[in-house]
């Protein structure tokens, strides 16, 4: 099916989400932060990016904004469980105002993730930012 870049700084979360995506028949490449993700985006033509928002080195907001400035912006799902400084609802509200296709709250079920992936893959890509 689709090639998905999964970005999350928590290895256990990546393992669970990757398993869900593989159940759906998708191929998955992984990054533990935005810096690694940027390198992978240069090397791979992915169909979809699923990014955590709160991560060290380069967060999900940076991934979203840098991806939106590329010639062919990928479809993006932003996902978060919140942070010590900002609530989950606040982070999701900020992400919804960015060039993303969907936002999801952690924890997410396999069914909810696969439904969001299916909807996003069928949707147009977010607009390129200048």
Query: Spatial order of the strands in the main sheet?
Result: 2-1-3-4-5
Gyration radius over CA: 13 Å
Total count of domains: 1
N-to-C CA distance: 31 Å
CATH topology: Rossmann fold
Within CATH, the superfamily carries the name Response regulator
The dominant shape is globular
Percent strand equals 15-25%
Mean pLDDT: 93
Number of helices: 5
Oligomer: single chain
What about the largest sheet? 5 strands, parallel
What would you call the structural class? alpha/beta
Strand and helix order? EHEHEHEHEH
How would you describe this structure to a colleague?
There is one protein chain. This protein has helices at 11-23, 34-43, 60-68, 88-96, 110-122; strands at residues 3-7, 27-31, 48-52, 75-80, 102-105. Strands 2-1-3-4-5 form a five-stranded parallel sheet, sandwiched between helices. The chain has a single domain (3-121), classed as Response regulator (Rossmann fold), CATH 3.40.50.2300. The mean pLDDT is 93. It has 130 residues and is an alpha/beta fold.
Features:
alpha/beta, 5 helices, Rossmann fold, globular, 5 strands, 130 residues
Topology overview:
Elements (H helix, E strand, L loop, with lengths): L2 E5 L3 H13 L3 E5 L2 H10 L4 E5 L7 H9 L6 E6 L7 H9 L5 E4 L4 H13 L8
Helix pairs in contact: 2-3
Task: Give a quick rundown of the structure.
This protein has 130 residues and is α/β, with parallel strands linked by helices.
